[in-house]
Design a protein that fits this description.
Blueprint: E1 2-8, E2 11-17, H1 27-35, E3 45-50, E4 57-63, E5 68-69, H2 73-85, E6 93-98, E7 101-110, E8 113-120, E9 143-147, E10 150-158, E11 162-167, H3 173-184, E12 194-202, E13 205-212, E14 216-218, H4 222-234, E15 241-246, E16 249-255, E17 262-267, E18 269-275
Length: about 280
């Protein structure tokens, strides 16, 4: 099986081109195998680039634990780069079918290859039952939640996948690695949740670390950055235009007042290609 490893701000995935190759018979098991950083290729998960009858391509995304997720903001930017650079679809604007619907992506092209991608991530989902969470609020904003005998204030948003955003004065390993996995599986989140820990620098500038559902801490999370942008406005902490500094790089976010859509801009990078024994 031919594969390509790509990353967006260090959030890395193994990509399989299902336009030109058969669909893996066990994508969940394949994701667990290739994602292993000691015995596999090493990644945050597996992304299948598939044909679509609704868009230019379809994205199926599997976390490193084999669970299938609805959406990945960094992953979809890299998918767009692959589709354009490999000549599957050569257009400056692409559409990609995902678990949260069809999304539009504008490509920044230099010397014939994609460097950065702007993604229309759509409208945030703010109804508690649709996030889903059983925390109270429309949406739940600054709601107390307890983990590891510590109480936090949570603001919950879905960008097609669930996010719990927590603002802290300092982001520490004990918070991310200790409280993150507990909040991920907290009873308040029936489908588990991604957890973002945020330190505000300015109203237009924040630092974020994310514990991702099914993958653990990653160097970046695109949907998580979008959730932080929305949560900051909902809780009155940050502006609609926001730069999010993640461990692997920076993303630019804008939650539009005009159409209520969240726009995310960031890099897409190819690392290497290889062959995985089937």
């Amino acid at each position: 099986m031919f594969f390509t490893k790509m990353h967006g701000c260090g959030n890395d995935y193994i990509y399989v081109d299902c336009f030109r190759n058969p669909m893996p018979h066990d994508p969940a098991g394949l994701s667990r195998a290739v994602s292993d950083r000691h015995f596999g290729v090493g990644s945050d998960g597996l992304i299948l680039i598939c044909p679509s009858d609704k868009a230019d391509a379809r994205m199926r995304m599997f976390n490193s634990d084999g669970s299938e997720a609805e959406m990945c903001g960094n992953g979809i930017r890299c998918l767009a780069k692959y589709v354009y650079d490999r000549g599957i679809v050569r257009k400056p604007t692409l559409t990609v079918e995902t678990g949260r619907g069809v999304l539009a992506l504008d490509l920044e092209i230099a010397t014939g290859v994609v460097r950065n991608v702007k993604v229309n991530m759509g409208e945030p989902i703010l109804e508690a039952a649709q996030i889903p969470t059983n925390l109270i609020g429309k949406p739940p904003t600054n709601v107390p939640i307890t983990a590891s005998d510590r109480q936090f204030q949570a603001t919950c948003v879905s960008m097609g996948n669930p996010h719990c955003v927590i603002y802290v004065p300092e982001i520490t390993d004990s918070l991310v690695l200790g409280s993150g996995p507990i909040i991920e599986k907290h009873p308040a989140f029936p489908n588990r949740t991604n957890v973002g820990f945020v330190r505000i620098i300015r109203p237009d500038d924040v630092i974020v670390r994310v514990w991702e559902r099914g993958s653990g801490e990653t160097l970046a999370c695109g949907t998580g950055a979008c959730a932080v942008a929305v949560a900051g406005v909902l809780s009155g902490r940050t502006q609609r235009r926001l730069v999010v500094h993640l461990r692997g790089g920076d993303l630019s976010l804008y939650w539009s007042e005009t159409d209520n859509h969240v726009y995310m801009t960031g890099p897409a990078v190819e690392v290497f290609s290889g062959t995985w024994p089937e």
